[in-house]
Design goal:
The complex is a heterodimer of chains A (about 120) and B (about 110).
Chain A lengths: L2 E5 L2 E3 L5 E8 L7 E7 L5 E7 L6 E3 L7 E6 L4 E6 L8 E8 L8 E2 L3 E5 L2
Parallel strand pairs in A: 2-11
Antiparallel strand pairs in A: 1-3, 3-8, 4-5, 4-9, 5-6, 7-8, 9-10, 9-11
Chain B lengths: L3 E4 L2 E4 L5 E11 L4 E6 L6 E5 L3 E2 L7 E14 L8 E7 L6 E2 L3 E5 L1
Parallel strand pairs in B: 2-10
Antiparallel strand pairs in B: 1-3, 3-7, 4-5, 4-8, 5-6, 8-9, 8-10
Classes of the chains: A mainly beta (about 120), B mainly beta (about 110).
Chain lengths: ~120, ~110
């Protein structure tokens, strides 16, 4: 069955960096566009970044552009999010999700990895 | 950026009743790029409706989506206690992909 499992979250001080990972199984990873979506505590969903199936195209929300980098390793069935210059407002549960096309629905989601930015 | 505004913020209904959730876009959207998600407490979002009106795999026919242009809706007929959740609309036809702020559905 389709599985997406995030890891790498934790508590980090403002200005520091953190890398999230998303390990997938149960589907042909290299066929799918992948996304990161975050949810601040008690708040709604915010799309963060997307990467094309072959990794050649990336897209970012303005709130993270220039600080976050999305990448993937299709040989390892893994998606990554490198987060630099973290701010308290980046505190959230970070989900990875897949879509079949660059602009299409997110049909499977992981369970999330919590990132807390605090001094 | 396309802003999605959902209403009402909270909806409280009884089992067996019908719920209608609204999603209004700040500019016209092709309905092929409008989806609805359900999020229960402590769980990840789950896709309910894609392309405006198509039910995702395993979603019961009590859930239906409709709309065009800037006004879309999710209807849940014959509410069940398990439908208690927050529901989000999303447009995925342009960047940034955006979500509405959510409607919380309470079952009395």
């Amino acid at each position: 069955q389709v599985q997406l499992v995030e890891s790498g979250g934790g508590v980090v001080r403002p200005g520091r960096s953190l890398r999230l990972s998303c390990a997938v199984s149960g589907f042909a990873f290299s066929d799918y566009v992948m996304h990161w979506v975050r949810q601040a505590p008690g708040k709604g969903l915010e799309w963060v970044a997307a990467i094309s199936n072959d990794g050649s195209n990336q897209d970012y929300a303005d709130s993270v552009k220039g600080r976050f980098t999305i990448s993937r390793d299709n040989s390892k069935n893994s998606l990554y999010l490198l987060m630099n210059s973290l701010r308290p407002e980046d505190t959230a549960l970070y989900y990875c999700a897949r879509s079949y096309f660059w602009f299409s629905d997110f049909d499977y989601w992981g369970q999330g990895s919590l990132v807390t930015v605090s001094s | 950026e396309i802003v999605l505004t959902q209403s009402p913020g909270t909806l409280s209904l009884s089992p067996g009743e019908r719920a209608t959730l609204s999603c209004r876009a700040s500019q016209s959207i092709d309905s092929n790029y409008l989806g609805w998600y359900q999020q229960k407490p402590g769980q990840a979002p789950r896709l309910l409706i894609y392309e405006g009106s198509s039910r995702a795999a395993g979603i019961p026919d009590r859930f239906s989506g409709s709309g065009a242009g800037t006004d879309f809706s999710l209807t849940i007929s014959r509410l069940e206690p398990e439908d208690c959740a927050v529901y989000y609309c999303q447009q995925y036809g342009s960047s940034p992909r955006t979500f509405g702020q959510g409607t919380k559905l309470e079952i009395k």
